[in-house]
Write a structure and sequence with these properties.
By secondary structure, this protein is of the alpha+beta class. The chain folds into two domains: about 30 residues; about 270 residues, 2-Layer Sandwich (Alpha-Beta Plaits). Helix content is about 30%, strand content about 20%. The chain is globular, with a radius of gyration of 24 Å.
């Protein structure tokens, strides 16, 4: 090929590549960065006032909320599953325990990348809820389905807990060789934040150096995992998530009795009773099995009632 023609072709190819690179850069500059691939998981906890609310709560969940949710985020969620809370063991309310469901999602991107609240933007339909549903789930009425401000207290509101974490646990404190053959799993899922004025670094130092070794050393504990809650999306006040497993509720009760006498109150604590964080305000949890009540993307077939 003539050298002049070859040089002209090379120049044309280079110019085309530069134009394409410039167009991609322009697109990147205008598109929200958080629309990019960003795998994460989330935990949602919901309570009811008492068992008499379960028929209405479950009707809302399966008749309205599950199909709403699948319609909205099926294109970018790989797992959407709900676990039924197990009965509360003795003194469970001292640990901010929720009593109805925990729902878990695995996301491919940040669903709130254009929203300043825990409700996504850019969707055709809003999620359906009513003041009646908010009342039976111990939440303020007249607002969004998920709270923009945390108002949880033991005797008052138990707002929906919503927190995002990495797909993979960051800290594996005990039981990494456990398999499904090693017996039943009584999961204690907890989320907590340190009191106002305590940095996460200061709180996590206590968690890692004081609390975690004591928990991991208990013979009743079979598995212990934890992660920091992601800073974005920010859908609640909590800073850390942890799962501690037992074989049954009696083992949990025994473990809590032992920990209360072993773990010293940190200097920054404003709550005198173990775990030294105020229940429903700074510390929440739920007791779960190791398999969901419904893996909705695989199992949901509509609200098919009795005949």
């Amino acid at each position: 090929m003539d050298l002049k023609i070859r040089a002209s072709l090379s120049a044309l190819i280079l110019a085309t590549a530069l134009l394409a690179t410039g167009a991609q850069a322009a697109d990147s500059a205008t598109a929200p960065a958080s629309e990019s691939f960003q795998p994460m998981r989330s935990f949602i906890m919901v309570s009811v006032r008492d068992d008499s609310d379960l028929p209405a709560a479950y009707r809302w969940l399966y008749k309205y909320h599950v199909p709403d949710s699948i319609s909205q985020f099926a294109p970018y969620v790989t797992k959407y599953a709900t676990y039924r809370a197990l009965p509360l063991p003795k003194d469970a309310e001292d640990f901010g325990t929720y009593n109805w469901i925990m729902t878990e999602h695995y996301w491919l991107l940040n669903p709130f990348h254009t929203s300043a609240t825990a409700a996504p933007n850019g969707l055709a339909f809003k999620e359906y809820s009513t003041d009646d549903y908010m009342r039976i789930t111990r939440q303020p009425t007249g607002g969004d389905l998920r709270p923009s401000q945390w108002v949880g207290t033991r005797e008052g509101y138990h707002p929906t807990v919503f927190a995002f974490a990495p797909v993979f646990w960051e800290d594996d404190f005990k039981g990494s060789d456990r398999t499904i053959e090693d017996g039943p799993n009584y999961r204690w899922l907890t989320l907590f934040k340190y009191p106002e004025g305590v940095t996460q670094e200061e709180g996590d130092k206590w968690f890692r150096e004081q609390l975690a070794p004591q928990i991991a050393g208990l013979p009743e504990v079979t598995r212990f995992l934890s992660s920091r809650v992601l800073a974005e999306p920010k859908t609640g006040p909590f800073q850390r998530v942890a799962e501690i497993w037992f074989s049954d509720s009696k083992q949990w009760e025994q473990a809590m009795a032992e920990l209360g006498g072993r773990v010293a109150k940190p200097a920054w604590a404003k709550w005198d009773k173990f775990p030294y964080m105020e229940p429903y305000k700074d510390f929440v949890g739920e007791f779960l099995l190791d398999r969901p009540e419904s893996d909705h993307l695989q199992q949901y077939k509509g609200y098919v009632s009795t005949r």
